[in-house]
Amino acid sequence: MNYSLKIGKIYKITEENFDENLGYLPKARQEHVLKFKDRNRQKQSLVATLLLEECLKELGALDLYNDVIEDENGQWIIKDSDIHFSISHCNETVLVAAARFPIGCDIELVKDAKMDVAKRFFSENEVKQIETSDRPELVFYAYWTIKESYLKLTGKGLLGSIEDVEVDDSLTMIKNHPELKVESVFLNDYVMSVVYEKR
Questions:
Q1: Which of 3, 20, 24, 138 has its CA 20 to 30 A from that of 199?
Q2: Are residues 155 and 188 part of one domain?
Q3: Helix 124-131 to helix 136-154 angle, to the nearest 10 degrees?
Q4: Is the Cβ–Cβ distance between 196 and 104 less than 8 Å?
Q5: Which H or E run contains 39?
Q6: What pTM, to 2 d.p., does this model score?
Q7: Between vectors from CA 154 to CA 131 and to CA 114, what angle results, nearest 5°?
Q8: pLDDT of the chain, 199 residues: tens digit per residue
Q9: Cross-sheet strand order for the sheet of 4-9
Q10: How far is CA 179 from CA 39, 82, 97, 199, in A?
Q11: Are residues 38 and 17 in the same domain?
């Protein structure tokens, strides 16, 4: 694998060890964690930062850990570096992907397929693939996480238009972007996707 992917659970951060783990982070990340009023959101941010450290270590770039900053768009980046990373969280689960090329990731808990959402934001072909699948909920969330991962890779995130991203039937490619690789994994009740530049 030419990127680092880490997954973690927030329940490992307890009230007893929260402050100890927080104190381990660079000052800017501590401030970011404490910006959230909700304790679960604080734990998600804390776990994400700890997972990012593991990713950087795996990529041989641990020396850049203290260089993580928030840019003018509110995105966390490592300035003047070839390291890119993406963070996603859903409930108690946090996912972090990092690489020496643009990368985006997303994780979602699988529930029922939201066909009203699919018909509004997905292409006709994608809707058809969901409706004719034996597991429509898995296909729906695979499409959704791939689209979200692509938007994170481009840096658009929530500012991007999910309906402008069309995924092929095999769920391995984004149409009109053959330079990108798509990978999706179904793990327990979650779907995780990663989109990155082919190398």
A1: 138
A2: yes
A3: 150
A4: yes
A5: helix 39-58
A6: 0.91
A7: 20
A8: 689 999 999 999 999 999 999 998 888 889 989 999 999 999 999 999 999 999 999 999 998 888 888 777 677 888 889 999 999 999 999 999 999 999 999 999 999 999 999 999 999 999 999 999 999 999 999 999 999 999 999 876 555 577 678 898 888 889 888 899 999 999 889 999 999 998 7
A9: 4-9, 93-99, 84-90
A10: 40, 18, 18, 9
A11: yes
* 163 in the same domain as 119: yes
Q: Tell me the residue type at 96.
A: V
Torsion of CA 121, 125, 131, 134, to 10 degrees: -120
Provide the residue range defining the domain that includes 118.
105-197
134 and 174 share a domain? Answer: yes
Contact 158, 61 (CB under 8 A): no
